[in-house]
Specification:
Largest sheet: 4 strands, mixed
Number of strands: 4
Structural class: alpha+beta
Strand order of the largest sheet: 2-1-3-4
Distance between the termini: 75 Å
Shape: elongated
């Protein structure tokens, strides 16, 4: 039973390794997939599902699953041999995640695993008491918890790497568009800053701007900051403000010091870009603002 549990755990570990790094595993499986856009994804999903199912069935003592797992490992070995003959040794193979490499050690490993799985049905089945089955169930549950923890850590690492790879974008600040940086404008008189406010944020929108409507929750969220005094200027109702500040279009944001000095400006399309206007204003406050 211990041997069967370990053999099933090998298949489960291979499947969990692919689930923890889906994109890299799909890229590693691309040479073995049909030459279509969705080919690597299909092979990754199929192979992961088969390994999960076989791993559970092998651990449960299914002879059919053991034979199927042995045949699968032999097929893997033959596929690796074919890649080596074609001169692709050293490429990722995704056998146990994207770190696996095509090579003779991988072939030997798959042949050995295939022999193990094919030999499992010849092992005599044990006869456990009730206490023994309870202990076995507890052991399987603990192994499952450890595997789940490894999967969660792997997914967290992937998400972290993805967030680091996608650099945040700042609002588009063009010197010739909008008010001049460092200039003082009378628009500050339209604000009613609170006692804690340090920055006046003028947001220019228009009724015909679909992006503006989509960003209304983000604009409202920004205005909840006690350090920010927010005022929205509509293209039609506040035409004078638009003309005075030479606003190029919407959505557009201008960050002012409380004395009316223009600290930052720019066109924005996301909450992050709107917050970048405030961040730039905070950096420039207290220093010289250069146009």
């Amino acid at each position: 039973m211990l041997v069967r549990g370990l053999a099933g755990a090998i298949l489960l570990a291979a499947a969990l390794a692919k689930l923890a790094t889906p994109r890299r595993s799909q890229a590693a499986l691309a040479p073995f997939a049909p030459p279509t856009r969705s080919g690597p994804v299909f092979v990754w999903a199929l192979l992961t599902g088969v390994e999960l199912a076989l791993g559970i069935a092998v651990a449960a003592g299914s002879e059919t699953a053991a034979y199927a797992a042995g045949a699968l490992m032999i097929c893997f070995a033959l596929g690796l041999v074919g890649e080596i003959i074609r001169g692709h040794a050293g490429r990722p193979c995704a056998c146990f995640g994207p770190r696996g490499k095509v090579g003779w050690p991988a072939v030997a490993r798959n042949v050995g695993l295939g022999a193990l799985f094919l030999a499992l049905p010849s092992i005599e089945a044990p006869h456990f008491t009730t206490t023994g089955w309870l202990a076995l169930g507890l052991g399987v549950a603990l192994i499952g918890l450890v595997a789940l923890a490894i999967l969660v850590l792997g997914l967290a690492r992937e998400v972290g790497a993805l967030r680091l790879a996608v650099a945040p974008q700042a609002a588009l600040e063009i010197p010739d568009e909008g008010p001049e940086l460092g200039a003082r404008v009378d628009l500050i008189q339209a604000f009613e800053p609170g006692p804690d406010a340090r920055t006046a944020l003028a947001v220019f929108t228009s009724d015909g701007c679909s992006v503006c409507h989509a960003l209304e929750p983000a604009i409202e969220f920004t205005g909840r900051d006690p350090l920010v005094a927010l005022r929205v200027f509509d293209e039609h109702r506040d035409q004078r403000a638009w003309r005075t500040l030479d606003v190029p279009g919407s959505p557009f944001a201008v960050a002012l010091d409380l004395d009316g000095t223009v600290l930052a400006k720019g066109t924005f399309n996301t909450l992050g870009q709107l917050e970048s206007v405030l961040a730039t204003a905070a950096q420039r406050r207290g220093g010289t603002v250069h146009a």
